[in-house]
Design brief:
Layout (H helix, E strand, L loop, with lengths): L9 E7 L4 H14 L6 E5 L2 E8 L2 E8 L4 E6 L3 H8 L4 E4 L11 H10 L25 E4 L8 E8 L4 E8 L2 E8 L3 E3 L1
Antiparallel strand pairs: 1-5, 1-6, 2-5, 3-4, 7-8, 7-11, 8-9, 9-10
């Protein structure tokens, strides 16, 4: 199969088994890192929006998937990047024709990312930034609740309140591995 060579990064949609979106995201992020594909696959996003759920008289913010069964990827499609994504467990295929993935238009990508409070690069938008007040400091241990390092314990090395992110290290296979997580992905131990 010849996909042709794309040189521009665009947003694509992949279809996953329902309920496997976060697992596919984690698997892809691990593959991107382990196979050195950071220069071809830039962002893996499960489109979610926050909702307030009332349960037993208490309000709780929950994340609801906007498009169940779909994951967004910002990538440059070539033979290798297509193959890696296509052969990730839980991925049933790219949205588009059988032979060539069809990217989202810039307007579609912008609209979806804006609905999630992100800008066109998949970064959190500073427009309606929710300030998160976490009782954490450098050296604290946190449990990672989602993402490629879900269920790992990280030791915080940096806190970036302007981006609501932390940097830390996790012990993986007896080695320290650097990680970056959003405040919404961690909980203090």
């Amino acid at each position: 199969m010849s996909l042709g060579m794309e040189t521009e990064k665009k947003w694509y949609v992949i279809h996953t088994y329902s309920g496997y979106e976060n697992k596919v995201k984690a698997n892809l992020e691990r593959k991107i890192h382990s196979m050195g594909m950071e220069d071809k696959i830039f962002n893996v996003i499960v489109p979610v929006e926050e909702e307030i759920e009332k349960k037993n008289g208490k309000e709780k913010v929950v994340q609801r998937k906007i498009f169940p069964g779909y994951v967004l990827l910002e990538m440059i499609v070539d033979e290798r990047s297509w193959y890696i994504v296509r052969n990730t467990p839980g991925v049933t295929g790219f949205v588009g024709s059988n032979t060539k993935p069809v990217p989202l238009t810039d307007e579609e990508a912008k609209r979806i990312l804006k609905a999630m409070g992100m800008d066109e690069q998949g970064e959190e938008s500073t427009e309606d930034k929710k300030l998160v007040d976490l009782d954490i400091e450098i050296g604290d241990k946190v449990n990672i609740k989602s993402g490629a390092f879900e269920n790992f314990v990280a030791t915080i090395t940096e806190i970036d309140y302007s981006k609501n992110k932390i940097k830390g290290v996790v012990d993986m296979f007896g080695r320290e591995t650097a990680v970056e997580c959003g405040f919404d992905q961690i909980e203090k131990i």
